[in-house]
Specification:
This protein folds into two domains: 9-163, Rossmann fold (3-Layer(aba) Sandwich), CATH 3.40.50.1070; 166-491, no CATH class. It is an alpha/beta fold. The strands form three sheets. The protein has a six-stranded antiparallel β-barrel, surrounded by four helices. A five-stranded parallel β-sheet has the order 2-1-3-4-5, with helices on both faces. The mean pLDDT is 95. The protein has helices at residues 21-38, 53-65, 81-91, 115-128, 143-163, 186-191, 200-209, 214-232, 239-256, 273-277, 282-291, 301-314, 369-375, 434-443, 459-468, and strands spanning 9-14, 43-45, 70-75, 95-100, 140-141, 166-171, 194-198, 262-267, 295-296, 318-325, 346-351, 360-367, 381-388, 391-400, 406-415, 425-430, 450-454, 474-475. The protein contains 15 helices and 18 strands.
Length: 492
């Protein structure tokens, strides 16, 4: 995957000056031994143990000199909350805290660390400085337990770093019939995301500009042929045009990121696209998203950003799908494994053909059936259609509502290994508790019809990343017996 941050995680030990510093150093050594056993990549221990503010400055110098972009504050004992939180504030990147458990009764007589207490004072001081820090559900850990928390935090930090260094390119206005994918841009700027909105004409000019780069276009065609094979390459005559578009988008990506390190796209794809370009862009969108550069449909800026967050959380391709249609009973085989969901919790996630081939059980290039009804088949070829592969999934969206307030949802489940019996890039999603979640969160809180889907359960990662980014309105499915706000208990 390209277009993602490499997290360089620094672990900084701290020690209150009335506690033996040797205790923190010994516990740091034990922690790093477990990190190496687990082969966690790009995790480094700071040679400076923070006892006072001067140590804080030395540790900050170490972090800057070594390219550290995320930190874990390790309380080997009670810790000095002032210098510790000062480090977090001046560091500025994503931060977490963990504290060492007492190892055994033999150390309690004189080598007790009291880190359980230290986390309380750390948390209070974080509040004084108005900082957001990741504190695990169980922050007091053994070295083995710490490795799991550090592994999770690397993913959380990747999402946060990516978002703070992201630019989203929009091409074209949102279609009138899809005002639901509205995109107030102030909240994106509040998150640190840069926004560059362009015209569909800009993409047309860009497409024509790269037409003379025939060798590069031919190389992309060969790569497409290798990906599709003979059976899935239904319309080989359109591959040169698709390859030209891919080159155009990648050229824009390379030359317009500017001060940002990462970028995503939200492109207009109908109704003017087909008569002008004479093909559908979906297959190209799928290929770029599969490599780590989401290209969202229908100028869905927040959809593109949501896909990017899902890809950073999972380190896998994601996709953007309509939360589309119900599942008839006769589609579901008798005795089918619904992965903990009931029949009423099933739905089909669909889009025209933007899910990459590695995330499909079966697929081939087709024409877009819905648009072909109005425009004909000749100019609507280029979708990648078939069944989405069975896998775990996390459906997710970050969105600004019409009042420019950030809201989000996260739900975990599975794509089932059941033939959807329909067209497009499509799969049957099973999200336990979805029926009520759909009514009282997706409908009730006015989310648009697009959702991002990771092909992995990454709800924990996304939840904590949203919190670090300052998003507090995070909606998840509620268990039976727990009512959503406004849910009628007499209607259940």
């Amino acid at each position: 995957m390209i277009n993602q941050p490499v997290v360089k995680l620094g672990i900084v030990g701290v020690s209150r000056d009335c506690f033996p510093i040797s205790l923190t150093k010994a516990r740091m050594k034990a922690l790093m031994e477990e990190v190496r056993k687990a082969k966690l990549p790009e995790v480094y221990d700071c040679p400076v143990t923070i006892e006072n503010e001067k140590d804080t400055l030395k540790a900050l110098d170490w972090a800057r000199e070594n390219g550290i972009n995320a930190v874990c504050m390790f309380l080997g004992n009670f810790g000095p909350e002032g210098p510790t939180t000062m480090f977090v504030q001046k560091f500025g990147g994503p931060a977490m805290v963990i504290a060492a458990k007492e190892e055994s009764k033999s150390g309690l007589a004189s080598d007790r660390g009291d880190a359980l207490c230290g986390v309380l004072n750390f948390s209070y001081n974080v509040g004084l400085r108005r900082l957001r820090v990741y504190i695990p559900e169980y922050p007091n850990v053994t070295p083995v337990e710490a490795v799991k928390e550090l592994s999770d935090f690397r993913h959380i930090a990747r999402v946060v770093i990516g978002m703070r260094n992201l630019k989203v390119f929009g091409f074209g206005p949102r279609p009138f019939d899809f005002l639901a994918c509205n995109a107030p841009i102030q909240p994106l700027y509040d998150l640190g995301v840069e926004v560059q909105e362009n015209s569909e004409l800009d993409m047309k000019v860009q497409f024509e500009k790269v037409a003379s780069r025939t060798a590069e276009i031919e190389a992309i065609v060969k790569d497409m042929q290798a990906e599709l094979g003979a059976e899935r390459n239904t319309y080989p005559e359109i591959l040169p045009k698709l390859a030209q578009l891919e080159l155009a988008i990648m050229d824009w990506y390379e030359n317009n990121k500017g001060a940002c390190n990462y970028a995503v796209f939200a492109n207009k794809c109908w109704p003017a696209w087909q008569p002008v370009f004479n093909f559908e862009p979906c297959y190209v969108n799928s290929r770029l998203t599969g490599r780590g550069i989401p290209v969202a449909c229908e100028v869905d800026l927040y959809g593109a950003v949501s896909e990017y967050m899902a890809e950073c959380a999972s380190e896998m391709p994601a996709t953007l799908l309509d939360i589309n249609n119900s599942v008839p009973d006769d589609v579901i085989p008798e005795g089918a494994n619904l992965e903990g969901a009931s029949k009423k919790d099933l739905y089909m996630g669909f889009h025209c053909g933007n899910t990459c081939s590695s995330c499909m059980k079966s697929c081939k290039i087709k024409y877009q059936l819905i648009q072909a009804r109005l425009m004909g088949e000749d100019i609507t070829k280029g979708t990648l259609e078939g069944q989405i592969k069975p896998s775990a999934t996390t459906m997710f969206r970050l969105q600004s509502n019409s009042d420019s307030k950030l809201v989000s949802y996260i739900a975990e489940g599975h794509f089932l290994d059941i033939d959807p019996c329909s067209f497009g890039g499509i799969g049957i999603a099973a999200i336990p508790g979805f029926a009520r979640f759909y009514r009282h969160v997706l409908v009730g809180k006015r989310f648009p019809h697009h959702g991002a889907y990771a092909f992995k359960n990454v709800g924990k990662i996304l939840f904590e990343a949203l919190h670090l980014l300052g998003v507090d309105d995070i909606n998840t499915p509620l268990p039976a017996g727990q009512l959503y706000p406004g849910e009628n208990p007499f209607a259940l």
